[in-house]
Specification:
By secondary structure, the protein is α/β, with parallel strands linked by helices. About 30% of the residues lie in helices and about 15% in strands. The protein has 7 helices and 7 strands. It has helices at about 15-25, 35-40, 60, 90-100, 115-120, 135-145, 160-165; strands at about 30, 50, 75-80, 105-110, 125-130, 145-150, 170-175. Strands 5-4-3-6-7 form a 5-stranded parallel sheet, sandwiched between helices. It starts with 12 loop residues before the first helix and ends in a 6-residue tail after the last strand.
């Protein structure tokens, strides 16, 4: 692949064949976003078999973020997703290093795929890695942040983008997040 990561996170061929057979025999296939819908269309699935059933989030929970009323001394970009090659972590870290933004930090929240471990052994200046956090802790991170970022190459629908938007954060995303 283009980024040099092993494709260990992709399902094995038998699982793919099983899924394709399910799609063929299904009367309706529910997909979480217009992006996924278009992907199915481009791969020959008839539109009348597809139904977009978008994810949702509990707005009353996420909107409770108490955001900054004044500009903070350090601008925080937040990532909430598993650190996987397909979610664009390598590209983001390279861009972060090259941008060399003063008075900014990037907080990465989520598990780490085995293939990414070598990439995060030495994080660029201003990057902080936090492991899995429960929803209340993620909401607290959102309250301390000024923007959400996820440059994914492939998603069904990144629910964390909806959570960030419900929390009042501007989001910097690719169309591949499905949002």
């Amino acid at each position: 692949n283009k980024l040099g990561f092993p494709l260990d996170e992709i399902a094995d061929e038998q699982k793919i064949l099983y899924d394709l057979k399910e799609y063929e025999t299904a009367d309706i296939i529910c997909v979480p976003s217009k992006f996924v819908y278009q992907t199915f269309i481009e791969n020959g699935v008839p539109a009348d078999k597809l139904y977009i059933n978008p994810y949702g989030v509990d707005y009353s929970f996420w909107s409770q973020c108490e955001t900054h009323s004044t500009a903070p001394a350090t601008f925080t970009f937040l990532w909430v997703a598993t650190l996987l090659p397909r979610k664009g972590i390598a590209v983001l870290l390279e861009a972060w290093k090259n941008a060399n933004i003063k008075n900014a930090r990037l907080v990465l929240v989520g598990g780490v795929a085995t293939s990414v471990i070598p990439l995060i052994k030495t994080l660029p200046r201003g990057v902080e890695l936090k492991s899995f956090l429960d929803h209340k802790a993620v909401r607290a991170e959102m309250a301390r942040s000024q923007a959400y970022i996820l440059p994914s190459f492939e998603e069904g629908m990144a629910r964390s983008v909806l959570e960030a938007a419900a929390a009042g954060l501007p989001v910097i995303i690719t169309k591949e997040t499905g949002a």
